[in-house]
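input
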Amino acid sequence: MDKIIIKDLEIFAYHGVLDFEKRNGQPFLVTVELMVDLRDAGLTDDLEATVNYANVCEDIRNVMTDEKYNLIESAAENIASAILLKYNKVKSVTVSIGKPQAPIPMTFDMVRVEITRKKHIAYLGIGSNLGDKEGYLDYAVDQLGKDDYVTVNKVSSYIVTEPYGDVEQDDFLNGCLEIETLYTPEELLAVIHDIEAGAGRKRLIHWGPRTLDIDILLYDRAIIMEETLKIPHVEMAKRTFVLEPLCEIAPYAYHPGFNRTVLELLEQLKQTEI
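output
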């Protein structure tokens, strides 16, 4: 991936833990590296094919001057978010903020923090078997789309499926989504739980009936095995009702645990069922 680099943009601002830092202010040096595909811009010589770095500089200045932060870590986080949310062509950004006049009683050149943030692709499974099933699935899509840190790229068809597990209950309506998000997996899980709660979801019976169920199936190529979060979803390769709608929108999405695409997993499962 190509880069646009803005190095040591000097901005006078009022950040720091100490009172005099917020009162008197001091200079900060901001460097950003934007990961952007610049081939079209190079071939066409068209400003619309790239990211206008003059506008990026203005955005950085606004973040640095509109608010007073205790920590330059917070300023860096807000700069990264502002850039990723505004510029679709930027897939990843590294933000470095230098503080040459940091109140340290020793000789030093500069205190600097550096963070890298990127847009992540995640696939979600959604299901409902209580009440207005289609309405609940649409609600999930709508609520995710309203979140500034989430873009819904694709939504599968909804399919009717028999319930999974031993609990006697109504058939499910299931579907899958592809989203682009700035959230970490843990943050995304918290957002999902809030949306489920908004739909009246109650976790009373394992694999029991529910108004709305949202599962993180895949998140980039991450493998996470924690007590409260497991990615890829541990049951997805066994579930036709997950793989069929997911294959509709992302047949070549990659399962890092099985080293297979979604299409390969679906074909394998169908052979096993035969």
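quick obs: Residues 99 and 111 are 5 Å apart (CA to CA).
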